[in-house]
Amino acid sequence: MKIAFFSTHRFEKSFFAENPPGLSISFFDAALNRQTAPLTQGFDCVCCFVSDQLDSATIEILHRNKIRLIALRSAGYNNVDLAAADRFKIPVVRVPAYSPHAVAEHASALLLSLNRKIHRAFMRVRDLNFSLEGLVGFDLYGKTVGVIGTGRIGSVFARIMKGYGCAVLAYDPIQDEGLIRDSVAKYVGLSELYGQSDIISLHVPLLPQTNHMINKASVAQMRRGALLVNTSRGALINASDLIEALKSGQLAGAALDVYEEEEGIFFKDLSDQILQDDLLARLLTFPNVLITSHQAFLTREALAKIAEITFRNILDFEQGRGLPNQVSAETHLRST
Ligand code: NAI
């Protein structure tokens, strides 16, 4: 099985170095999209990441090039036109869970840094500025944290927050019985969560019904001075509304690992270029906004698991076994 591996990053290559017998990998730095899809000629499988754009036109080219499998190295699949993949009969497999701890721990690291202004203190001390002015944070202990989405990652995040002595409010149409049994979280309606939380963290997938769920109207329901954390998907937040909320002080800060227009920006070194995205540029001017470049998953454990499950998915397909990690337009509809 010949695999075209797109959007290759140096940090992941070593985890894919020991491929099982029968699989051969060619690494491409380029992202897969309709311009680069012709590179897939002569391959059987494409292996893709969140920055690859598998729209209908791209998938049609894959079909013409006799690609038999799309293997995603991610949990999220909102960058794949599943209906088109179904139409061209190319199965799509993903890595549904690799390390919920990696993402939940990063969310908590962002929250702690934002609150205690570690990002500012680090820069200041390196400049021999040892002043403490402007660095006042608050105790997490005793605060209320609202967790939106208590699946694999949100439930781990809720338990971490409980460990800090926070009261955890949760919102998810599917409740996690373990969180209730262990008295970690109390499920409430979304309005109550917005109204009661000092910190709100997003752990829902990007779906039509969650797109821009954080907007002018939802921000208005939040406690004045709340902190917002997003390690899920950028488009959960309307960035213009977030900027207004930060300017007015309705939100006291935001910690973001994802951004709606991150494609073409995140994962790249653009340090010698002019940033063209004005909303991101504005967000970067706030001292109370902390942005990381979609790195919440980036632990050794998660990368090893991603490689292991990706190889297993490809071998399951090649050896004619069932595909437990397949996603299709039909399964997607059933799960939403
Ligand atoms: P999951 O599928 O285990 O949990 C998602 C939860 O959201 C489910 O419990 C579901 O019932 C709930 N949900 C769905 N629609 C909802 C709604 N409208 N309101 C409230 N809850 C809703 O997914 P998991 O593994 O916890 O991942 C969550 C998200 O994290 C992924 O969709 C992905 O976008 C993001 N992610 C980000 C990474 C990063 O590096 N920043 C890495 C991995 C995932």
What does this structure look like?
- The chain is α/β, with parallel strands linked by helices and 336 residues long.
- It folds into two domains: 2-98 and 300-331, 3-Layer(aba) Sandwich (Rossmann fold); 100-291, Rossmann fold, CATH 3.40.50.
- 35% of the residues lie in helices and 15% in strands.
- The protein has 13 helices and 13 strands.
- The chain has helices at residues 10-13, 56-64, 82-87, 100-116, 118-126, 152-163, 177-181, 190-196, 216-221, 239-248, 278-283, 300-318, 329-335; strands at residues 2-5, 24-27, 45-48, 69-72, 92-93, 144-148, 167-171, 185-187, 199-202, 226-230, 251-256, 289-291, 326-327.
- The strands form two sheets. Strands 8-7-6-9-10-11-12 form a seven-stranded parallel β-sheet, sandwiched between helices. A six-stranded mixed β-sheet has the order 2-1-3-4-5-13.
- Strand 1, helix 1 and strand 2 (24-27) form a beta-alpha-beta unit.
- Helix 4 (100-116) crosses helix 6 (152-163).
- The protein is globular, with a radius of gyration of 21 Å.
- The two termini are 33 Å apart.
- 1,4-dihydronicotinamide adenine dinucleotide is lined by residues 75-76, 97, 100, 103, 148-154, 171-174, 203-207, 209-210, 231-233, 257-258, 294, 296-297.
